[in-house]
Amino acid sequence: MALTIHPLVPSRLVIEAGRMTYLRNYGNPRWLPCPFFAILGGDEPVLVDTGASATVMSKLRAEPVEDLMTFEEALARVDLRPEDVSLVILTHLMYDHCANAKRTNAARFVAQKAEVEFVKNPHPMLAGAYHAHLYEGLDFQVVEGDLELKPGIRLLHTPGHSPGNQSVAVETSAGTAVITGFCCTQENFRFNNVQAWVSSVDPEVIPPGIHLDMAQAYDSAVRVKKMADILIPFHDPLTEELSRIP
Q1: 107, 40 in Cβ contact below 8 A?
Q2: What is the per-residue pLDDT across 153-184, written as a single tens digit (0 to 9) for each?
Q3: Whole-prediction pTM value?
């Protein structure tokens, strides 16, 4: 079954680039998209995350945010309405990934057990990214570890950015596409070898700068890089330019 992935970008935000790339690029704020993704071609449309509006994000962060379109307008780009969505994979529960979740009417939401447990008492260093009113009361299907969710769609537990972070592997006509659940851009996987300090060992990836466990985040990034024929870094600017993958 050949599925297609459609990046949908309702909003974007200014973020310090070093928060994407551990120990690199500080002092370099960038506008980055806050996308969600529609997976089409199966027996039902599947969303990966829901994005967030600038109205919501502006109350939760100091840096600039802006809307590009509403959640409903984004869905309309792939001929969907909120009521058409019955399945949403939440990569994790930080606000920019789930703030539009309650705008779907009858969806079930797939999240990792480790994430659902973590948000009950998040670590103080990440607590500002979790806001219970955005996800409390959702119809959760709680999973644990890797799982083939549907034909052609596999969940990958990729911890580090958060304990229950998950990425999504999708079988397409061009091979396996992996939507990285953790926050990153292409620069995490294709970077020059300028080191944060002098070392004889070159890293395979640069883990996200926002993480609970850097070593886990590194290993998760290596894992998705090795298995993907098409790698989709979550906050990469290309998601604003592409209407379909592949």
Answers
A1: no
A2: 999 999 999 999 999 999 999 999 999 999 99
A3: 0.96
